[in-house]
């Protein structure tokens, strides 16, 4: 009785230790991912662009709409197109800029970008231009390259942290499984009962087979046991949790699946 109680307490403690470990691993994994994510959350640099002009123009315009920006860009030197642009400038409906002035991206739509000029006579003005009339500055290109490299490194650290956490969890999981009792037998599967009464019937059939052999009568009785839902087969080596010895039998739950059963004590290997 004392040995049975000690084993029961030992199994319960092992289960509690496993649950506590899984909680610690999960928290550690979340912490590592959070730290690495913070590294990847560095602010993406706001790119600056150098504004260009269409050919045969020593300046260009910020259009108030996407449609006008695309039309102006498509027909810059057409007689009507050029007159249209110059008239809009005279009326103050178009703001002009010089090639080389700098701007930042505001939004994009189709072939045009809305930009805000940050240098030159039109500083602070916003309008639409064809995106082909913008080229990223060398400084912004370098800053973007540094950002992308840092993001790549941060992502690598994040993946490494996840992999390490997964490997550690797998190692601890395997150690826990190896600490559990297992079903054992001569074949690939072991017959276990579905209840204590069925376990007594299973024991009787096993004893019959040992006395008279495992011929037709033995096999019929084993088949009946399964057909009537009194017995089932489980894979040899199945880890067992909540395993409790009860005389010549062991009640248990299969690890992970939670399937309950009653095994003959001879079919249980204790760690």
Count of helical stretches = 6
**Computed CA radius of gyration, to the nearest angstrom:** 38 Å
Text of the CATH class of the largest domain: Mainly Beta
How much helix is in the residues? 40-55%
What is the CATH-assigned architecture of the largest domain? Roll
Overall morphology:
rod-shaped
Unreliable spans: 1-7, 24-41
Strand order of the largest sheet: 6-5-4-1-7
Largest sheet: 5 strands, antiparallel
Helix and strand composition category: alpha+beta
CATH fold type of the largest domain: SH3 type barrels
The succession of helices and strands, N to C, reads HEEHHEEEEEHEEHHEEEEE
What's the domain count?
A: 3
Distance between the termini: 19 Å
Number of beta strands: 14
Whole-number mean pLDDT = 85
Task: State which percent range the strand residues make up.
Answer: 15-25%
Write up what this structure looks like.
- By secondary structure, the chain is of the alpha+beta class.
- The protein has 3 domains: about 80 residues; about 90 residues, SH3 type barrels (Roll), CATH 2.30.30; about 90 residues, no CATH class.
- It contains 6 helices and 14 strands.
- A hairpin with a 2-residue loop joins strand 11 and strand 12.
- Helix 1 runs antiparallel to helix 4 and helix 5 packs antiparallel against helix 6.
- The longest helix is centred in the middle third of the chain and has 41 residues.
- The radius of gyration is 38 Å and the shape is rod-shaped.
- The N terminus is likely disordered.
């Amino acid at each position: 009785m004392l040995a049975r109680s000690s084993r029961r307490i030992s199994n319960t403690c092992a289960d509690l230790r496993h649950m506590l470990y899984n909680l610690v691993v999960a928290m550690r994994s979340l912490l590592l991912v959070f730290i690495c994510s913070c590294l990847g959350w560095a602010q993406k640099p706001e790119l600056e662009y150098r504004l260009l002009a269409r050919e045969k123009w020593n300046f260009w315009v910020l259009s108030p709409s996407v449609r006008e920006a695309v039309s102006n860009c498509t027909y810059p030197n057409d007689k009507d197109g050029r007159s249209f642009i110059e008239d809009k400038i005279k009326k103050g409906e178009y703001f002009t800029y010089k090639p080389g002035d700098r701007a930042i991206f505001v939004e994009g739509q189709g072939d045009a970008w809305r930009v805000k000029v940050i240098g030159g006579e039109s500083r602070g003005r916003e309008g639409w231009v064809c995106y082909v009339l913008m080229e990223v500055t060398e400084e912004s290109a370098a800053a973007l390259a540094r950002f992308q490299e840092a993001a790549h490194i941060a992502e690598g650290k994040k993946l490494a942290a996840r992999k390490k956490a997964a490997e550690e969890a797998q190692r601890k999981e395997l150690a826990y499984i190896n600490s559990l009792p297992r079903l054992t037998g001569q074949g690939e599967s072991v017959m276990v009962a579905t209840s204590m009464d069925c376990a007594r019937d299973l024991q009787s059939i096993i004893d019959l087979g040992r006395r008279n052999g495992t011929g037709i009568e033995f096999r019929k009785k084993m088949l009946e046991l399964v057909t009537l839902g009194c017995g089932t087969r489980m894979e040899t080596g199945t880890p067992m949790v909540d395993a409790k010895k009860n005389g010549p039998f062991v009640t248990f739950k299969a690890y992970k699946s939670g399937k309950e059963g009653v095994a003959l004590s001879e079919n249980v290997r204790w760690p």
